[in-house]
Amino acid sequence: MAEIKPFSPVKLICGIISSEDRPFRRAEERLAALFGAVDSRSPRFEFDLTDYYETQMGKALKRGFLSFDRLIDPAGLSEIKIRTNALEKEIQREFKEDRRVVNLDPGYITPAALIMATAKDFSHRIPLQNGIYGHLEFLFTRTGIRRLGWTYPDFANEGYQKYFLDLRRRYRDQLKGA
User: What pTM did the predictor assign?
Assistant: First the structure.
């Protein structure tokens, strides 16, 4: 029988989608207040491979990613997703908008993979708790990133992949120093 061991700590990340700079900045401030110091920011990438959010958020959307210095227990991902969903609504109220102004997608990096949280069920998603699922976005390999059949199309972007490979190196260095 295999011995049950605690999970290794993981690197918390959060994707931010918005069409405006002010909600991006406000989301980053609020996320840092919740999860600690931001230690990495990606560039903001055009989010134009799907129109999924256009009716809720408008056009000319961009997506950026943040990571946080403090490593977390991966078992807390569903609670984090519930909190970021509530934060989206809080920011919408702060900006006094009728429409959604920001989309927040938390997840984490392990040495082997990028896992994202979602409230949308699908065949390849794993139930976590409280209506939140884990979505295996892609795998890290010795030579790069291996996309899967369900990997979101924008994650094929070379800029995303460079960012996440760099972030994985940073995370592995953190683990060595812990």
Answer: 0.94
